Amino acid sequence: MPAIAIIGAQWGDEGKGKVVDLLAEKANMVVRFSGGDNAGHTVVNSQGEFRLHLIPSGICSPHATCIIGNGVVINPAVLIDEVDQLNRRGVDTSRLFISDRAHLIMPYHTLLDGLEERWRGKKALGTTLKGIGPAFADKVARLGIRTGDLLDRELFWERLQLVLAYKNAILTGVYGESPLSADEIYNQYHHYGERLAPCIRETTVMVEEALNREELVLLEGAQGALLDPDFGTYPYTTSSSPLAGGSCLGAGLGPGRISRVVGVFKAYCTRVGSGPMPTELEDETGDLLRERAHEYGTTTGRPRRCGWFDGVAARFSARINGFTGVAITRLDILDVLPHLKICIGYRGDGETINYFPPSVTALARCEPVYEELPGWQTPTSDIRRYEQLPFEARQYLARLEELISCPVNLVSVGAGREQTILKKPIL
Ligand code: IMP
Q1: Looking at 13, 21, 138, 310, which residue is catalytic?
Q2: Which of 145, 211, 235, 352 is the most buried (most CB within 10 A)?
Q3: Roughly what angle, to the nearest 10 degrees, separates helices 132-140 and 107-120?
Q4: Residue 299 pLDDT class (50, 70, 90 cuts)
Q5: DSSP single-letter state for residue 145
């Protein structure tokens, strides 16, 4: 059996949690490979509704081993709280494991995230303030502390003292804040370490063994391709790669092991935080999409910016990820609209362009070129077969398929696991 990567294809919040939860019924392993608790994956199934930030969305499937891979940054307090909440609701978390190479979010990371945003002023990125950027920056700067370090008290203390001396110099010298206490952090993290120790592992071996046993392994992405630090709307991006390529690095397997890459797209676009979004609708249609779909951040509660489907960004996303198929979510949200628009090109600096510009200033100048399609104005939430969808809905999906140049595997028409139309099997 292959590894399948499930990738956010837009600016995050595409509904990856639902797709992973659905596929996890058949999977033996689900590995989260990037981001941190900036992500919010909502899963609705027979056990209830769950909002997960760090724990893989396969946790409700009793046969799936769930791994938080080395590519994730972990706030241990958030993780422990998430485990406790799941346990209280009767979800078994004994199949959850954490990579010993995953970096920890430390108290100075969350503090610095807020201070850096304040320092940016009008140019603030609109981060989730969870310490994600500072934690990934420390990883690359070789100043990080990893979950595996929690297992060795002396090493952890030594490492903390070294890094904290530097962080305190920044907190006090640059930002005029009070220094943090090494003792307090040590005691707090020592306690977290004791709690998490049983699930901290060399997880790449577990992934390899599962693949060698021909088991189905899902690689669960967080955020979306357009938030990738290399290919997204830099600097208005996140700090780890949400791309299919990132799944190899963040889970610890070679690209040849991945046989399918499923891109998850919403039937329209949303974005939360700052940065250009060419198809944004700052009108009543945008408000209608937001209210119908309750487009408010799972992690921060912020209203999401809503807009028409962006075919240019979608094609770019498909190219840099190498999608073999796509899932289109939230089609039902469009049920009430009399007509729909799809962006098929941009007009920028007097010329029409059909690629996604690398510069945010160029992208911000882009005016979308729209194609208009009729709406279907029929409820679709109870439909389970593709042929039963209204003609206009199939026409809309066919146009998306054409623009993305990739077959649609499944269509989601509601939050529930069962509210899914399988068009073409993924496997
Ligand atoms: P950070 O990842 O918290 O540093 O935030 C950087 C940017 O990514 C901000 O615009 C956030 O709103 C956005 N972002 C981070 N995580 C998510 C997510 O899970 N969904 C949507 N946007 C996100």
Answers
A1: 13
A2: 145
A3: 110
A4: confident
A5: -
Residue 146 tokens read as: 């990893």
303-322 pLDDT, tens per residue? Answer: 999 999 999 999 999 999 99
Is residue 243 scored above 80 in pLDDT?
yes
Query: Residues with Cβ within 6 A of ligand 1?
Result: 11-13, 38-40, 125-128, 130, 132-133, 222-223, 227, 236, 238-239, 272-273
pLDDT at 300 over 90: no
Residues 6+ apart with CB under 8 A from 19: 6, 262, 264, 327, 329, 410, 412
Distance CA(48)–CA(52), nearest Å, equals 12
For residue 106, which phi and psi values (nearest 5 degrees)?
A: -105, 165
Please confirm, yes or no, whether 382 is among the known catalytic residues. Answer: no
| Mean pLDDT, the chain, integer | 96
CATH class of the structural domain 3-102+199-261: alpha beta
Residue 257, Cβ density class (10 Å: 0-12 exposed, 13-18 middle, ≥19 buried): middle
Neighbours of 348 (CB within 10 A): 16
Ligand 1 atom closest to the Cα of residue 302 is 12
pLDDT digits (tens, 9 = 90+) for 143-164: 999 999 999 999 999 999 999 9
DSSP state of 149: G
Among 295, 379, 284, residue whose Cα is nearest residue 336 = 379
Listed in order, the ranges of the chain carrying CATH 3.40.440.10 are 3-102+199-261
Q: What is the pLDDT of residue 197?
A: 98
- Looking at CATH, the fold of the domain delimited by 266-312+330-404 is given as Adenylosuccinate Synthetase; Chain A, domain 3 (3.90.170)
1 falls in which pLDDT band (50, 70, 90)? low
Q: How many residues does the chain have?
A: 427
Looking at the domain that runs over 103-196, which CATH code has it been given? 1.10.300.10
Q: Is the dihedral of CA 392, 397, 402, 403 positive or negative?
A: positive
Q: Please state, in angstroms and rounded to a whole number, the distance separating the CA atoms of residues 367 and 307.
A: 13
- CA 395 to ligand 1 centroid distance, Å: 32
